[in-house]
């Protein structure tokens, strides 16, 4: 009995060793970019390719060739109902690939290595003579979300070329336990169990099966991106809107609203916006990536000059006031409308930042639902608060007219600056009299003094001016 037990134990250990050896000697190769990983597993007469997204994934593709033109491509995407679609296409240039009805090698979806939640998509093609294989890759962030394999594809987020050594060996870091984890078709497995698989990520610190790796320390790139995000949100979604609200509501209650508006938009916003904006290109340059290759980066480069132009326009309106002009000249309205447009673009920019850029360039997850809900609430609350200020528009206009035409207080910075009459010089200046005149007094009379408004009017007789007489010089 003891001998039988020992024999079973040795048999178990032998089978375990053989299974481990087989798993460690899978033929193929793997490769990773910053957006996706690709693993090729050679199995006799076929090759299984597994594509795993490291960030947000709409569709993924592999093309067999060195450039996009004339490459035979296999494109896959998941649908919202959990199904997976595969489309074989080719392109005659840098254009959207068209369906290929007669591809060189017909591919088929390999479901054992396909997991939409990973997200991983896999397919199998017949093996050809390639040993050192040249291929291209692409990843798009928007799924066609249709079962039609000929569906329109929104342009990829990024793409590139890579090489695979199909004569290489994949070690046990490529797969986990279980026959389907080996990447072999079910018919080649010794059992029918179906354990989950993990992707090959030899050059990535993220495990695609379990999402972004938040346990890793922040890299310099991560810190730059986080600083860029925080400062940009504070500058564009808090400080700039605060300055707009001060301009809208403050002028209704005080003529000194411009002081607070200026402090907000210049003193506070300039350092925060400039530094936050600069961290973005600095992070991209550190990774060696393109600067204006997507909507977020393009709009980011436009926002800063628009913001600086707005500051210049506000300064011009403040320092260059029209003489005897309208209370609110056209540049004032342009300044207000331009500010609303900039804040609106900033909201869109922040949206693309956390929903697209963050998920693609970092391995640290965020609660997208929570962030999105906060963004939606803020984008609704701020416009309502701003435009509700127009309810007090009549009060504002009345206050401004009173200020300008009665001289009760100093004119607000955006009001018309009344010119000083020429009669305020000479005797008026010496007597410190105000310039108010109801038209019934002569050029020397006043109704009140600036220092004592309650003083009695000064009456002076009108004097006829004789014609000037030229006196001859004394001899």
Automatic annotation (TrEMBL):
Biased region (Polar residues) positions are: 417-427, 446-457
InterPro entries recorded? Cellobiose_DH-like_cyt (IPR015920), Cyt_b561/ferric_Rdtase_TM (IPR006593), DOMON_domain (IPR005018)
Q: From the record, give the transmembrane residue ranges.
A: 225-247, 259-278, 298-320, 332-350, 370-393
Bias type Basic and acidic residues, positions: 433-444
Cell location? Membrane
Signal peptide (from-to): 1-23
Query: Which GO cellular component does the record give, naming just one?
Result: membrane
- Major site of localization recorded for this protein: membrane
Cite the entry's keywords alphabetically.
Electron transport, Membrane, Signal, Transmembrane, Transmembrane helix, Transport
Top-level taxon in the UniProt lineage: Eukaryota
| Source organism of the structure | Rickenella mellea
Q: Where is the composition biased (Low complexity)?
A: 179-206
Region of interest (Disordered), residue spans: 175-214, 409-428, 433-475
The name on file for this protein is: Cytochrome b561 domain-containing protein
**SUPFAM superfamilies in alphabetical order:** CBD9-like
């Amino acid at each position: 009995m003891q001998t039988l037990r020992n024999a079973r134990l040795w048999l178990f250990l032998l089978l375990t060793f053989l299974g481990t050896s087989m798993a460690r000697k899978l033929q193929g190769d793997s490769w990773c970019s910053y957006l996706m990983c690709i693993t090729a597993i050679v199995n006799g007469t076929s090759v299984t390719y597994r594509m795993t997204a490291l960030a947000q994934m709409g569709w993924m593709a592999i093309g067999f060739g060195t450039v996009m033109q004339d490459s035979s491509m296999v494109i896959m995407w998941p649908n919202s109902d959990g199904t997976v679609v595969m489309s074989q296409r080719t392109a005659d240039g840098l254009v959207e690939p068209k369906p290929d009805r007669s591809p060189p090698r017909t591919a088929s979806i390999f479901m054992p290595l396909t997991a939409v939640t990973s997200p991983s998509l896999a397919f199998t093609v017949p093996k050809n003579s390639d040993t050192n294989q040249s291929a291209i890759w692409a990843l798009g962030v928007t799924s066609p979300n249709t079962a039609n394999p000929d569906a329109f594809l929104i342009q990829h987020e990024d793409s590139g070329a890579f090489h695979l050594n199909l004569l290489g060996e994949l070690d046990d870091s490529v797969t986990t336990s279980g026959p389907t984890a080996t990447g072999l078709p079910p018919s080649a497995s010794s059992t029918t169990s179906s354990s989950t698989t993990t992707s090959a990520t030899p050059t990535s610190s993220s495990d695609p099966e379990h999402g972004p790796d938040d346990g890793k320390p922040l890299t310099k790139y991560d810190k730059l991106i986080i600083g860029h995000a925080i400062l940009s949100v504070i500058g564009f979604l808090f400080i700039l809107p605060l300055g707009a609200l001060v301009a809208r509501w403050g002028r209704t209650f005080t003529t000194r609203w411009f002081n607070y508006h200026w402090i907000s938009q210049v003193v506070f916003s300039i350092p925060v916006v400039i530094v936050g904006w600069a961290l973005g290109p600095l992070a991209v340059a550190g990774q060696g990536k393109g600067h204006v290759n997507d909507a977020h980066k393009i709009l980011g480069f436009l926002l800063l000059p628009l913001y600086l132009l707005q500051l210049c326009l506000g300064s011009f309106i403040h320092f260059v006031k029209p003489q005897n002009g309208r209370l609110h000249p056209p540049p004032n309205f342009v300044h207000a409308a331009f500010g609303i447009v900039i804040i609106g673009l900033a909201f869109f920019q922040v949206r693309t930042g956390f929903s697209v850029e963050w998920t693609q360039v970092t391995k640290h997850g965020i609660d997208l639902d929570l962030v999105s809900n906060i963004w939606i609430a803020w984008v609704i609350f701020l416009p309502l608060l701003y435009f509700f200020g127009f309810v007090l528009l009549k009060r504002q206009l009345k206050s401004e007219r009173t200020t300008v035409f009665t001289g009760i207080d100093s004119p607000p910075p955006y009001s018309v600056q009344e010119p000083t009459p020429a009669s305020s010089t000479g005797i008026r200046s010496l007597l410190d009299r105000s310039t108010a005149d109801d038209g019934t007094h002569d050029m020397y009379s006043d109704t009140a003094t600036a220092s004592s408004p309650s003083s009695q009017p000064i009456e002076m007789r009108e004097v006829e001016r004789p014609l000037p007489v030229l006196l001859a010089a004394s001899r």
